[in-house]
Amino acid sequence: MNLDYIIPNNWSIIEEGFDPSQVKASESLFSIGNGAMGQRANFEEKYSGPTFQGSYIAGVYYPDKTRVGWWKNGYPEYFAKVLNAPSWIGINVTINNEQLDLFACKNVKDFRRELNMKEGWLSRSFVATLQNDIDVEVKTKRFLSLDLDEVGAIEFNITPLNSDAEITFEPYLDSGITNEDTNWDDKFWDTLKVSHENHQAFIQAKTMKTDFYTCTFMESEVFIDGKSVLIEPDFTSDANLASFKYSFNVKQNETYTIHKFGGYTVDRDHDKNELVSAAKTTLDKAKTAGFSKLLDDQKQAWAQIWDMADITIEGDVKAQQGIRFNIFHLNQTYLGTDETLNIGPKGFTGEKYGGSTYWDTEAYCIPFYMATKDQSVARKLLAYRYNHLPKAIENAEKLGFTNGAALYPMVTMNGEECHNEWEITFEEIHRNGAIAFAIFNYYRYTGDFSYIPEMGLEVLIGISRFWHQRANFSTNKNKYMILGVTGPNEYENNINNNWYTNYIAKWCIDYTLETIEKVKEGHSDDYARISGKTKITHEELALWKEVADNMYFPYSEEHNVYLQQDGFLDKELITVADLDKSQRPINQKWSWDRILRSPYIKQADLLQGMYFFEDQFTTEELERHFDFYEPFTVHESSLSPCVHSIQAAKLDRMDQAYTFYLRTSRLDLDDYNHEVHEGLHITSMAGTWMSIVEGFGGMRIKNDTLSFEPKIPAQWECYSFKVNFRHQIITVSVSQNETQFELEGDADLDILVNGKAVTISANNLVTV
Predict the structure, then answer these.
(1) Contact 1/584 with Cβ under 8 angstroms?
(2) Chain-wide mean pLDDT for the chain?
(3) Maximum Cα–Cα distance across the chain
(4) CB of 214 within 8 A of CB of 60?
(5) How many secondary structure helices (H) and strands (E) does the chain include?
(6) Which of 237, 460, 732, 759 has the largest CB neighbor count within 10 A?
(7) Distance (Å, rounded) from C-alpha 315 to C-alpha 327?
């Protein structure tokens, strides 16, 4: 734990007291989004202290030219950058000609910031003494509308406390922004036109290279003690700025308020020549509704989300706050309304990783969206990959693969690989397996096979062709091997026979062969179309099977475990417990050379495979491997604690499972990895949900039946969650003494509880 200033609360993230050293971290933690856009929790007014300004539009990116010391054949030409978009939130505030700036004030007291997760809004309040000795009280609230997802709303109140004052609000738009993350300091935006009409202002801009056309817009109105004041503002502009000035002589203890509506229209949704017109329509809707009505609608929209997605925990406020924080940010990032979008690792909270899609989506996020929303949302995420299949084939062709072999990208915006670290781009090929597993997992959970003949089988064929070609035959061992890879443990590069990679490659081929037969038998028209398109032959399938049946898996007879990779036992096997704490985190303290020679594991690697394919291993096998590998795991990936929590719960090690749960749920709130200022770890937040539902709740699909093996940490009185299983909503409530199941719907549902069959009647409560 590296931060400890967030106040524990069941439904809110709360900060009290102004500390400039915490501003960047809070800008991440208090970020807001609505699936279409998002922003860090920057102050509306000027702030001259250290800050990371960030506003982002879903699907808008820039192909930043790759920067490497030594170019290698096959390198992606660019790294797709999440773009810091033109800002609409700014409101300069002056009091008797002195600008409000918390970093420059004589004194700031009663500072309080709250992110209300239940209702979906961000607020601040404080009392500041300016250099001119005027005391002002400020209260602000803002949100990004879920119903009108192109618009956000701000309410900014200021009250002079010790004298009358002339106060000026200057709401503005600014397209002269830069990215924190850039390779060459390129100019990412080209401002096309700055204009205004009455109280509305517009900045039309487009991205360089990718030519996304956008219109950033705003409109404002002002009030005194809640009553509208008609002020004709002064308008000023330059090449990248548009601003209005609303000045008023405010009496002591009167409250001067501005409501500002702003946001973006984008040519992803509108004709590029109609963006201003679309912005006017959006502003008219927002202005007509007004701030209060929009806020009420926001509360209702979030109430609907929470009704299905909430997890309740009684007896442990920090644990409750953590899971809701994770669920909240997942829903701020992706709502499933657009199959051209996906879940980026930082969401709308930062720029560090670039790209919008990693294997995180398939491995961690799809289970969350399948269970907490309608299955159509998860299907959209799978359709996203199907639509990128041609690009995945191109990615493989660039590396020398043929015949429709597909290598899905590690990082992408449009299906094309855009990650520029060689050990990721060329070697971390296990990402292909996660996509195939997601297809299997979707069908296993939803029972919807239709995706596979319509789209999924083509993806599986492309992936299996890649694995067949990527494996090579060793005459020395008379086995097929996969050499020169990086597994999920990125602290080992260019190693041979990573167990997880080899295992998932074999599984992919076996699953594809099985699925081909199933489609052939039950969907003959689709099979004819797919076989004609892919030119698949019996001879090729036989070659695949030979590879799968003869895949090599390194094993230690001495330790009675599979080896993470061929050379793992050649390392100096010093456990994390014996590592000096001053050396942690090693990714910030050690050279890369030293890390690669160490036994330390960044995240679940071999254990990731045992998580995916739990049914293919005994509990005793899992226990042996967990006991061998977890002591070498430093958990310096956000994706690590959740898998280990699930497996510790499976092994009835509830204290360890609880510790891992707290780490995954509060990874950002407590800043375990010293990096929250860069943005949040959005995709791993889905793993937090899994650690409760799959870990403590023990939810699995066994023999096509929903199964639970409920357990509860000693620190909790009870917990509950809902899952949408094949269009039936099941509420699971676990206490220290019993588990209750309740079913919404019209039909009974048969489930397994601790291996025993239980029937839940519709709208009835069953206690086990």
Answers:
(1) no
(2) 96
(3) 89
(4) yes
(5) 21, 33
(6) 460
(7) 19
Beta partners for 450?
none
Amino acid at 478: N
Question: How far, in Å, CA of 746 to CA of 729, rounded?
Answer: 11
pLDDT value of residue 434: 98
DSSP state, residue 495: B
Please give the radius of gyration of the chain, using alpha carbons only, rounded to the nearest integer.
Answer: 27
Nearest to 260 by CA among 173, 148, 177: 173
Partner residues linked to 707 by β-bridges: 700, 752
pTM: 0.96
Distances 396 to 188, 430, 469 between C-alpha atoms, Å: 29, 14, 10
307, 96 Cβ separation under 8 angstroms? no
pLDDT of residue 432: 98
Q: Print burial letters for 6-28: b (CB count within 10 Å at least 16), e (below 16).
A: beebebbbbbeebeeebbbbbbb
DSSP H helical ranges for 535-681: 538-549, 586-589, 592-597, 606-612, 619-629, 640-650, 654-665
- As to burial, measured by CB atoms within 10 angstroms (0-12 exposed, 13-18 middle, 19+ buried), residue 485 is buried
Residues 6+ apart with CB under 8 A from 289: 297
Identify the three-state secondary structure at position 489.
coil
Candidates 761, 674, 682; CA nearest to 355 is: 682
Tokens 């676990």 belong to residue: 734
* CA distances to 10, 156, 470, 696, 735 from 711, in Å: 22, 47, 42, 5, 9
How far CA 400 is from CA of 66, 267, 403, 426, 469, in Å, comes to: 21, 36, 10, 12, 10
CB 254 within 8 A of CB 248: no
Q: Residues 490, 491, 494, 500: is their CA dihedral positive or negative?
A: negative
The candidate with the shortest Cα–Cα distance to 416, out of 181, 188, 186, 77, is 77
> Are 224 and 245 contacting, i.e. CB atoms less than 8 angstroms apart?
no
Amino acid, single-letter form, for residue 296: D
Secondary structure of 114-181 in HEC code, one letter for each residue = EEECCCCEEEEEEEEECCCCCEEEEEEEEEECCCCCCEEEEEEEEEECCCCEEEEEEEEEECCCCCCC
Point out the residues that are catalytic.
490
Q: Compute the half-sphere exposure of residue 750: CA atoms within 13 Å on the CB side of its CA.
A: 7
pLDDT at residue 57, as a whole number: 96
- What are the tens digits of pLDDT across the range 457-484? 999 999 999 999 999 999 999 999 999 9
Q: Are 120 and 146 in contact (CB under 8 A)?
A: yes
Tracing tokens 């000609």 back to the chain, one arrives at 97
680 in Cβ contact with 638 (< 8 Å): no
- Burial (0-12, 13-18, 19+ Cβ within 10 Å), 616: exposed
Question: How far apart, in whole angstroms, are the C-alpha atoms of residue 698 and residue 713?
Answer: 13
CA–CA distances in Å: residue 551 to residues 468, 505, 558, 625: 11, 9, 21, 20
What are the residue ranges in the chain where pLDDT is below 50? none
CA angle 484, 487, 488 (to 5 degrees): 160
Phi-psi region of 484 (alpha: psi -120 to 50; beta: other; left: phi over 0): left
- pLDDT at site 420: 76
Return the number of other C-beta atoms located less than 10 Å from residue 71's C-beta.
9
Contacts for 225 with CB less than 8 Å, ≥ 6 apart: 254, 255
Q: How far apart are CA 506 and CA 285, in angstroms?
A: 55
497 in Cβ contact with 483 (< 8 Å): yes
The predicted pLDDT at position 1 comes to 63
The Cα–Cα gap between 356 and 611 comes to 25
Cis peptide preceding 390, ω within 30 of 0:
no
Task: Give the model's pLDDT for residue 405.
Answer: 98
